[in-house]
Description:
The complex is a heterodimer. Chain A contains 3 helices and no strands. Chain A is an all-alpha fold. In chain A, about 10% of the residues are buried. Chain B has 3 domains: about 50-195 and about 325-385, 3-Layer(bba) Sandwich (FAD/NAD(P)-binding domain); about 210-320, FAD/NAD(P)-binding domain (3-Layer(bba) Sandwich), CATH 3.50.50; about 405-510, FAD/NAD-linked reductase, C-terminal dimerisation domain (Enolase-like, domain 1, 2-Layer Sandwich). In chain B, about 30% of the residues lie in helices and about 25% in strands. Chain B has a 5-stranded mixed β-barrel. In chain B, helix 2 packs parallel to helix 9 (about 370-385). The longest helix of chain B is centred in the first third of the chain and has 25 residues, at about 130-155. The termini of chain B are far apart. The relative contact order of chain B is 0.10. Chains A and B meet through helix 2 and helix 3 of A and loops of B. Chain B: Belongs to the class-I pyridine nucleotide-disulfide oxidoreductase family. Chain B: InterPro entries: Class-I_Pyr_Nuc-Dis_Oxidored, FAD/NAD-bd_sf, FAD/NAD-binding_dom, FAD/NAD-linked_Rdtase_dimer_sf, Lipoamide_DH, Pyr_nuc-diS_OxRdtase, Pyr_nucl-diS_OxRdtase_dimer, Pyr_OxRdtase_I_AS.
Amino acid sequence: MRPSLILRATQHRTPLIKFIGKHNPPKTLDHTPKPHPASPTHSLPDSFKTYRSKAQQHGPLGGQGHASPFQAPTSGIMTYGRIGGTPGELLGPVEPKDGEYFDRNDLPKRFWRAQWTEEEIEAVNSGGAGLFA
Amino acid sequence: MLKTLVPRASRSLLSTKAPHLGPANLRTAPSFQIVSQNQQRRRGYASEASDYDIVFIGGGVAGYVGAIKAGQSGLKTACIEKRGTLGGTCLNVGCIPSKSLLNNSHLYHQILHDTKKRGIDVNDVKLNLAQMMKAKDESVAGLTKGVEFLFKKNKVDYIKGTGSFVDEHTIKVNLTEGGETEIKGKNIVIATGSETTPFPGLEIDEKKVITSTGAIALQEVPKKMIVIGGGIIGLEMASVWSRLGSEVTVVEFLGQIGGPGMDLDIAKQSQKLLAKQGIKFKVNTKVLKGNASGDGVKLDVEAAKGGKNETLEADVVLVAIGRRPYTDGLGIENIGIELDERKRLVIDQEYRTKIPHIRVIGDVTFGPMLAHKAEEEGVAAVEFITKGYGHVNYGAIPSVMYTHPEVAWVGQNEAELKSAGVNYKVGTFPFTANSRAKTNLETDGLVKILADAETDRILGVHIIGPNAGEMIAEGTLALEYGASSEDVARTCHAHPTLAEAFKEAAMATYSHAIHF
């Protein structure tokens, strides 16, 4: 006697391995320092916390739990930062409002207009020929 | 408005509708096209404080793989290496040269002892050790130069010299060819690797008292050799020199050979097979002291379980009691990052030290000191920087001992499962029952699979036998995917192959093997 389709379907083995589609980035990332999975002590020295509370790399790294206008979200991207810890797109538009102007000198020094060098001035004045003289 | 902030050198890429912006309009002058590249670079946005997006200290397997990945990810990358060749311990004095010697010494041994029954009569077989070493050196040179080529291909700057931290972003490099330079990195990855742990009281001269580095470069076959330490490195080197004619004794402090992780059943069988090949073992034996002042080396040893003391003598003693992290001259005291009690650099789950832009990968930090683990970490560390997430599964890192027969395992062994209180089932399949092993006349060994008694999920795979090092990849994949033994057993394996033994062991785990 041949088993019915329904009976055969119920007897079909479901493998443990399942194709779950292409690998996707995790929806939330928590960058808070945690012990390394292969750490024998399963703990981190206090210095990891204290360094972050003091450090100034792209803004203070620590400070979770501090009330501040720069407080970063505690979940999602860049959880450990405050200034610089929030994605730029969440900070709102960068275009100036009508009648508002940005001053270059308010930016960090590296964005300031570079000074002309003598060589460049000479290049401009001579049409460039001076560089090959 | 913000357009005025764009460096002048780049503005030609922007719309020509730009309003009059003062002196910047001078860019249209022909002269602007010919100012030197340095001036254009000077006018770029990049802060002069960071020369590189990422700097790797150490060009071993962790460092070079990470550097290539970083180059591929578009990061401006430098790799500092002091050895003079890339590839670190693995390529230069570890995995690669030892595999060359293991393979060729096995061929020699096989020709001497294992050809007649195969119908091949060979006469006048001689060992040409110098040529065997040359073949090894050529393999190493080819591979290390290959890595250099990959650096060029992926635009990684290779800096030959010794790097040490000046501060958290600056590294001083004492260049191999003289002089020094300083480079800065927004991200710095320490990948300085490991070195052989010395044996107290025995000075390493790499002639009479040797490490694995000396063991791959001996100029003649020692008459007698003692190996202190019956782990993977010790047993591989013991195999090489035993095959080439040395009388080798392995002294191991623990009761089993193979080191941590090797399943007890497999370790016992491995010891039996290696002993059959002529290697002597003294397990449960402690080396008290050594004396290398005479022609040879004398070792005083003590049997752990009430045995008597004795003195062993040899021409060469190989110290293979383990490896320790290498941080000499790195200047970590200048940045204040922590070491644990075994001198490993302490990191978090993203390989960061307490200083978040300084990461550590490979042998110099946590986890097994294995090249493939270091490679995985090299890729993951870069992905944490570029993507925000990375992946290394420390529960699925295979180990392989390239003796003959090979031993390989991944996941947990029986002792670990017992101590964790896990209810498990075991399935084994011997190579004596495998058709390909029979035709190859290599039937020593077995495949052993451990699976959860309730879910059938594979928890560990342990293989001793021909091609175990290749076959363990299937076990690692199964473990990574969370496969059940039935999943593996129901997967079609080609016939006749050694891999069928793996399938049959999986069948034995969830039901019954067919051929045994």
